[in-house]
Amino acid sequence: MKKNNEDVRYAVRDEAGKYLPPFPVDPIALTEHTREKVCKTTDGIYMRKYTRFYAVGVYGGIATAYSVGCNYRCVFCWVDWSRDWPEKSGEFYNPSEIYQELRQIMRTQGLRRARISGAEPTLCPSHLLGVLDLVHRDRNIFDLFVIESNGVVFSQDEDLVRNLKRYASTNRDTVGHVRLSIRGGLPEPFEEKTGCKGEFVELPFIAAQRLWDANVSFHVAVVVDPRFTSEEEKQVIYDKLSDIDKTVKEGVEEEYLDPYPHALVRLRAVGREDVTGKEISRVEKSMLRERPES
User: Fold this and answer.
1) Domain limits for position 114
2) 216: domain CATH number?
3) Radius of gyration (C-alpha) of the chain in whole angstroms
4) What distance lies between CA 183 and its chain's CA centroid?
5) Which of 180, 177, 106 has the alpha carbon at shortest distance from 145?
Protein backbone atom coordinates (compact mmCIF):
# COMPACT_ATOMS: atom_id res chain seq x y z
CA MET A 1 0.00 0.00 0.00
CA LYS A 2 1.26 3.45 -0.85
CA LYS A 3 2.11 5.77 2.00
CA ASN A 4 -0.53 8.27 0.87
CA ASN A 5 -3.84 6.52 1.39
CA GLU A 6 -5.64 8.89 -0.98
CA ASP A 7 -4.92 6.14 -3.52
CA VAL A 8 -6.83 3.49 -1.52
CA ARG A 9 -10.31 3.88 -2.91
CA TYR A 10 -12.33 0.74 -3.63
CA ALA A 11 -11.19 -2.65 -4.84
CA VAL A 12 -10.95 -3.34 -8.57
CA ARG A 13 -10.17 -6.62 -10.33
CA ASP A 14 -8.86 -7.05 -13.86
CA GLU A 15 -10.39 -9.32 -16.49
CA ALA A 16 -8.42 -12.25 -15.10
CA GLY A 17 -9.98 -11.70 -11.67
CA LYS A 18 -6.80 -10.37 -10.06
CA TYR A 19 -6.86 -7.40 -7.72
CA LEU A 20 -5.31 -4.23 -9.10
CA PRO A 21 -2.79 -2.45 -6.82
CA PRO A 22 -2.84 -1.39 -4.06
CA PHE A 23 -5.24 -4.25 -3.26
CA PRO A 24 -5.36 -6.34 -1.21
CA VAL A 25 -4.41 -3.94 1.58
CA ASP A 26 -3.12 -4.16 5.14
CA PRO A 27 -5.99 -2.98 7.40
CA ILE A 28 -3.62 -2.02 10.22
CA ALA A 29 -1.63 0.24 7.90
CA LEU A 30 -4.85 1.59 6.40
CA THR A 31 -6.01 2.44 9.92
CA GLU A 32 -3.03 4.72 10.44
CA HIS A 33 -3.32 6.35 7.01
CA THR A 34 -7.05 6.98 7.42
CA ARG A 35 -6.53 8.52 10.84
CA GLU A 36 -4.40 11.18 9.18
CA LYS A 37 -7.50 12.22 7.21
CA VAL A 38 -10.31 11.93 9.75
CA CYS A 39 -8.82 12.51 13.23
CA LYS A 40 -7.16 15.59 14.69
CA THR A 41 -6.59 17.39 17.97
CA THR A 42 -7.37 21.10 18.29
CA ASP A 43 -6.43 22.88 21.51
CA GLY A 44 -6.38 19.53 23.29
CA ILE A 45 -9.85 18.55 22.02
CA TYR A 46 -10.23 15.36 20.01
CA MET A 47 -12.00 15.92 16.70
CA ARG A 48 -13.35 13.57 14.07
CA LYS A 49 -14.95 13.94 10.65
CA TYR A 50 -18.69 13.34 10.13
CA THR A 51 -20.94 14.00 7.16
CA ARG A 52 -24.48 14.06 8.56
CA PHE A 53 -26.86 13.21 11.39
CA TYR A 54 -30.23 11.51 11.07
CA ALA A 55 -32.71 9.04 12.55
CA VAL A 56 -33.31 5.56 11.15
CA GLY A 57 -35.61 2.68 12.04
CA VAL A 58 -33.05 -0.02 12.93
CA TYR A 59 -32.61 -0.93 16.61
CA GLY A 60 -36.21 0.13 17.10
CA GLY A 61 -35.41 3.70 16.09
CA ILE A 62 -32.01 5.29 16.60
CA ALA A 63 -30.24 8.64 16.18
CA THR A 64 -27.15 8.29 14.00
CA ALA A 65 -23.91 10.21 13.58
CA TYR A 66 -22.48 9.32 10.15
CA SER A 67 -18.71 9.22 10.52
CA VAL A 68 -16.01 9.26 7.85
CA GLY A 69 -13.29 6.72 7.07
CA CYS A 70 -12.79 2.96 7.34
CA ASN A 71 -9.92 0.46 7.47
CA TYR A 72 -11.74 -2.15 5.36
CA ARG A 73 -12.73 -1.92 1.71
CA CYS A 74 -15.64 -4.37 1.65
CA VAL A 75 -16.92 -4.95 -1.87
CA PHE A 76 -20.55 -4.94 -0.71
CA CYS A 77 -20.22 -1.84 1.47
CA TRP A 78 -23.30 0.40 1.47
CA VAL A 79 -21.47 3.50 2.76
CA ASP A 80 -21.20 6.49 0.43
CA TRP A 81 -18.01 7.78 -1.21
CA SER A 82 -16.82 9.28 2.08
CA ARG A 83 -15.40 5.84 2.86
CA ASP A 84 -13.06 5.95 -0.13
CA TRP A 85 -12.39 9.69 -0.29
CA PRO A 86 -12.14 10.63 3.42
CA GLU A 87 -9.93 13.63 2.70
CA LYS A 88 -12.71 15.15 0.56
CA SER A 89 -15.63 14.35 2.82
CA GLY A 90 -17.24 15.66 5.98
CA GLU A 91 -16.45 18.23 8.64
CA PHE A 92 -14.61 17.94 11.94
CA TYR A 93 -16.68 17.84 15.14
CA ASN A 94 -15.67 17.59 18.77
CA PRO A 95 -17.34 15.08 21.16
CA SER A 96 -19.65 17.71 22.65
CA GLU A 97 -20.94 18.71 19.22
CA ILE A 98 -21.62 15.08 18.31
CA TYR A 99 -23.44 14.54 21.57
CA GLN A 100 -25.60 17.62 21.03
CA GLU A 101 -26.44 16.62 17.45
CA LEU A 102 -27.56 13.18 18.60
CA ARG A 103 -29.55 14.55 21.53
CA GLN A 104 -31.34 17.01 19.26
CA ILE A 105 -32.44 14.16 16.99
CA MET A 106 -33.49 12.09 19.98
CA ARG A 107 -35.61 14.93 21.33
CA THR A 108 -37.32 15.75 18.05
CA GLN A 109 -37.94 12.10 17.12
CA GLY A 110 -38.80 10.83 20.61
CA LEU A 111 -35.89 8.37 20.65
CA ARG A 112 -33.79 6.92 23.45
CA ARG A 113 -31.11 5.24 21.34
CA ALA A 114 -28.10 6.56 19.44
CA ARG A 115 -25.07 5.28 17.54
CA ILE A 116 -22.00 6.17 15.55
CA SER A 117 -22.17 4.50 12.14
CA GLY A 118 -21.26 5.02 8.50
CA ALA A 119 -17.61 4.14 8.93
CA GLU A 120 -15.31 2.68 11.60
CA PRO A 121 -16.07 4.49 14.90
CA THR A 122 -12.90 3.31 16.63
CA LEU A 123 -10.47 5.01 14.24
CA CYS A 124 -10.27 8.03 16.57
CA PRO A 125 -10.30 6.35 20.02
CA SER A 126 -9.95 9.47 22.18
CA HIS A 127 -12.79 11.16 20.31
CA LEU A 128 -15.00 8.10 20.69
CA LEU A 129 -14.31 7.89 24.41
CA GLY A 130 -15.13 11.60 24.70
CA VAL A 131 -18.56 10.99 23.16
CA LEU A 132 -19.13 7.96 25.36
CA ASP A 133 -18.20 9.94 28.46
CA LEU A 134 -20.96 12.45 27.71
CA VAL A 135 -23.46 9.67 27.02
CA HIS A 136 -22.51 7.91 30.25
CA ARG A 137 -23.01 11.13 32.22
CA ASP A 138 -26.62 11.30 30.98
CA ARG A 139 -27.19 7.55 30.69
CA ASN A 140 -30.63 7.79 32.32
CA ILE A 141 -31.99 9.27 29.09
CA PHE A 142 -30.51 6.52 26.91
CA ASP A 143 -31.66 2.94 26.47
CA LEU A 144 -28.72 2.10 24.22
CA PHE A 145 -25.65 3.59 22.55
CA VAL A 146 -24.26 1.39 19.76
CA ILE A 147 -20.69 1.29 18.46
CA GLU A 148 -20.61 -0.56 15.14
CA SER A 149 -17.10 -1.89 14.51
CA ASN A 150 -15.15 -4.38 12.41
CA GLY A 151 -12.82 -5.03 15.36
CA VAL A 152 -9.46 -4.19 13.77
CA VAL A 153 -8.67 -1.43 16.27
CA PHE A 154 -9.92 -3.49 19.21
CA SER A 155 -7.54 -6.25 18.16
CA GLN A 156 -4.60 -3.84 18.32
CA ASP A 157 -5.54 -1.46 21.15
CA GLU A 158 -6.05 -3.17 24.51
CA ASP A 159 -6.29 0.20 26.26
CA LEU A 160 -9.35 1.11 24.21
CA VAL A 161 -11.05 -2.13 25.17
CA ARG A 162 -10.27 -1.57 28.85
CA ASN A 163 -11.55 2.01 28.70
CA LEU A 164 -14.65 0.90 26.82
CA LYS A 165 -15.70 -1.22 29.76
CA ARG A 166 -16.50 1.97 31.68
CA TYR A 167 -19.23 2.77 29.17
CA ALA A 168 -20.29 -0.61 27.77
CA SER A 169 -20.13 -3.25 30.46
CA THR A 170 -22.06 -6.43 31.05
CA ASN A 171 -22.05 -5.92 34.81
CA ARG A 172 -22.32 -2.15 35.32
CA ASP A 173 -24.90 0.58 34.94
CA THR A 174 -23.96 1.44 31.34
CA VAL A 175 -25.80 1.89 28.03
CA GLY A 176 -22.95 1.29 25.56
CA HIS A 177 -22.91 -1.78 23.34
CA VAL A 178 -20.62 -2.99 20.54
CA ARG A 179 -21.95 -4.53 17.34
CA LEU A 180 -18.91 -6.42 16.04
CA SER A 181 -19.06 -7.25 12.33
CA ILE A 182 -17.24 -10.36 11.15
CA ARG A 183 -16.90 -10.51 7.39
CA GLY A 184 -15.09 -13.80 6.95
CA GLY A 185 -13.57 -16.84 8.58
CA LEU A 186 -11.18 -18.14 5.93
CA PRO A 187 -8.29 -16.15 4.42
CA GLU A 188 -9.25 -16.27 0.75
CA PRO A 189 -12.94 -15.32 1.03
CA PHE A 190 -12.07 -12.73 3.70
CA GLU A 191 -9.72 -11.13 1.17
CA GLU A 192 -12.36 -11.29 -1.55
CA LYS A 193 -14.99 -9.61 0.61
CA THR A 194 -13.00 -6.99 2.50
CA GLY A 195 -10.24 -6.04 0.05
CA CYS A 196 -7.78 -6.77 2.89
CA LYS A 197 -5.04 -9.37 2.90
CA GLY A 198 -6.23 -12.80 3.98
CA GLU A 199 -3.56 -13.02 6.67
CA PHE A 200 -5.59 -10.55 8.73
CA VAL A 201 -8.71 -12.72 8.90
CA GLU A 202 -8.20 -13.42 12.62
CA LEU A 203 -8.29 -9.78 13.78
CA PRO A 204 -12.07 -9.63 14.40
CA PHE A 205 -11.90 -12.86 16.40
CA ILE A 206 -9.06 -11.43 18.51
CA ALA A 207 -11.31 -8.41 19.08
CA ALA A 208 -14.22 -10.64 20.11
CA GLN A 209 -12.01 -12.47 22.59
CA ARG A 210 -10.77 -9.21 24.09
CA LEU A 211 -14.27 -7.80 24.40
CA TRP A 212 -15.41 -11.01 26.06
CA ASP A 213 -12.48 -11.08 28.48
CA ALA A 214 -13.09 -7.45 29.45
CA ASN A 215 -16.83 -8.04 30.05
CA VAL A 216 -17.74 -5.48 27.40
CA SER A 217 -21.34 -5.65 26.20
CA PHE A 218 -21.28 -6.83 22.58
CA HIS A 219 -22.76 -9.12 20.00
CA VAL A 220 -21.42 -10.37 16.69
CA ALA A 221 -22.95 -9.76 13.27
CA VAL A 222 -21.95 -12.28 10.60
CA VAL A 223 -22.47 -11.98 6.85
CA VAL A 224 -24.17 -15.28 6.03
CA ASP A 225 -25.56 -14.24 2.66
CA PRO A 226 -24.80 -17.29 0.45
CA ARG A 227 -23.69 -15.01 -2.38
CA PHE A 228 -20.70 -14.07 -0.23
CA THR A 229 -20.31 -16.71 2.49
CA SER A 230 -20.29 -20.45 1.90
CA GLU A 231 -21.70 -22.91 4.42
CA GLU A 232 -18.15 -24.10 5.05
CA GLU A 233 -16.94 -20.61 5.91
CA LYS A 234 -20.02 -19.91 8.01
CA GLN A 235 -19.30 -23.00 10.08
CA VAL A 236 -15.67 -21.95 10.53
CA ILE A 237 -16.83 -18.57 11.83
CA TYR A 238 -19.33 -20.14 14.23
CA ASP A 239 -16.74 -22.63 15.49
CA LYS A 240 -14.31 -19.80 16.24
CA LEU A 241 -17.00 -17.86 18.09
CA SER A 242 -17.99 -20.97 20.05
CA ASP A 243 -14.34 -21.34 21.11
CA ILE A 244 -14.67 -17.96 22.84
CA ASP A 245 -17.96 -18.98 24.45
CA LYS A 246 -21.05 -20.71 23.19
CA THR A 247 -23.19 -17.68 24.10
CA VAL A 248 -21.20 -15.55 21.62
CA LYS A 249 -22.18 -17.90 18.82
CA GLU A 250 -25.76 -18.17 20.07
CA GLY A 251 -26.12 -14.39 20.04
CA VAL A 252 -25.03 -13.93 16.42
CA GLU A 253 -26.97 -11.52 14.23
CA GLU A 254 -27.05 -12.98 10.73
CA GLU A 255 -26.69 -10.48 7.88
CA TYR A 256 -28.08 -10.70 4.37
CA LEU A 257 -26.89 -7.93 2.09
CA ASP A 258 -28.86 -5.52 -0.07
CA PRO A 259 -27.22 -4.08 -3.20
CA TYR A 260 -27.29 -0.41 -2.17
CA PRO A 261 -26.33 2.14 -4.86
CA HIS A 262 -22.67 2.56 -3.85
CA ALA A 263 -22.39 -1.19 -3.33
CA LEU A 264 -23.42 -1.77 -6.94
CA VAL A 265 -20.43 0.22 -8.18
CA ARG A 266 -18.03 -1.59 -5.84
CA LEU A 267 -19.41 -5.02 -6.68
CA ARG A 268 -19.21 -4.43 -10.43
CA ALA A 269 -15.60 -3.26 -10.01
CA VAL A 270 -14.67 -6.73 -8.72
CA GLY A 271 -16.66 -8.58 -11.36
CA ARG A 272 -19.73 -9.53 -9.31
CA GLU A 273 -22.24 -9.23 -12.13
CA ASP A 274 -24.10 -12.14 -10.55
CA VAL A 275 -25.21 -9.58 -7.95
CA THR A 276 -25.29 -6.35 -9.96
CA GLY A 277 -26.67 -7.73 -13.22
CA LYS A 278 -24.96 -7.22 -16.57
CA GLU A 279 -26.58 -3.87 -17.36
CA ILE A 280 -25.56 -0.78 -15.42
CA SER A 281 -28.68 0.60 -13.77
CA ARG A 282 -29.74 4.24 -13.64
CA VAL A 283 -28.94 4.48 -9.92
CA GLU A 284 -25.50 2.98 -10.47
CA LYS A 285 -24.79 5.52 -13.20
CA SER A 286 -25.86 8.24 -10.78
CA MET A 287 -23.37 7.02 -8.17
CA LEU A 288 -20.61 6.99 -10.78
CA ARG A 289 -21.38 10.61 -11.67
CA GLU A 290 -21.18 11.57 -7.99
CA ARG A 291 -17.87 9.74 -7.47
CA PRO A 292 -15.05 12.18 -6.58
CA GLU A 293 -12.09 12.53 -8.87
CA SER A 294 -8.80 11.15 -7.65
Assistant:
1) 5-290
2) 3.20.20.70
3) 19
4) 11
5) 177
